[in-house]
């Protein structure tokens, strides 16, 4: 019986290691998505206020009043 317990323990350990690696990979993916939000252009983005899209942060900061004025028009 000692041999089957050893195999079971090894399988449990391997499953635990695999599960840990999967959780780690998912965590890294989430962190990269929530990172500085810069694409290949290097420009940072942000969630557009009042919308479910993303916009370039520097464009928004240049003229916030205009952004909100145009948002109310739509």
Protein topology:
Layout: H1 2-33, E1 45-47, E2 54-56, H2 57-62, H3 64-73
Antiparallel strand pairs: 1-2
Write a structural description.
- Strand 1 (45-47) and strand 2 form a beta hairpin.
- This protein has 2 domains: 1-35; 42-74, no CATH class.
- The chain has helices spanning 2-33, 57-62, 64-73; strands spanning 45-47, 54-56.
- It is 65% helix and 8% strand.
- With 74 residues, the chain is mainly α.
- The model has no long low-confidence stretch (mean pLDDT 81).
- The chain starts with a helix and ends with a helix.
- Strands 1-2 form a two-stranded antiparallel ribbon.
- The longest helix has 32 residues, at 2-33.
- Keywords: Membrane, Transmembrane, Transmembrane helix.
- InterPro entries: Egg_app_1.
- The chain crosses the membrane at residues 12-34.
**Strands, count:** 2
Q: Largest beta sheet: what is the strand line-up? A: 1-2
* Largest sheet entry: 2 strands, antiparallel
> What structural category characterises the helix and strand content?
mainly alpha
The amount of beta strand, in percent, is 5-15%
Report the mean per-residue pLDDT as an integer: 81
Give the terminus-to-terminus CA distance.
73 Å
Which spans have pLDDT < 50 for at least 5 consecutive residues? none
Total tally of structural domains: 2
Give, in order, the helices and strands.
HEEHH
Radius of gyration: 24 Å
* Oligomeric nature of the chains: single chain
Keywords: Membrane, Transmembrane, Transmembrane helix
Transmembrane segments: 12-34
């Amino acid at each position: 019986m000692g041999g089957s317990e050893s195999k079971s323990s090894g399988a449990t350990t391997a499953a635990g290691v695999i599960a840990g690696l999967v959780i780690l990979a998912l965590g890294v993916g989430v962190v990269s998505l929530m990172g500085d939000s810069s694409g290949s252009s290097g420009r940072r983005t942000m969630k557009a206020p009042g919308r479910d899209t993303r916009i370039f942060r520097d464009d928004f900061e240049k003229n916030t009043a205009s952004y909100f004025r145009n948002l109310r028009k739509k």
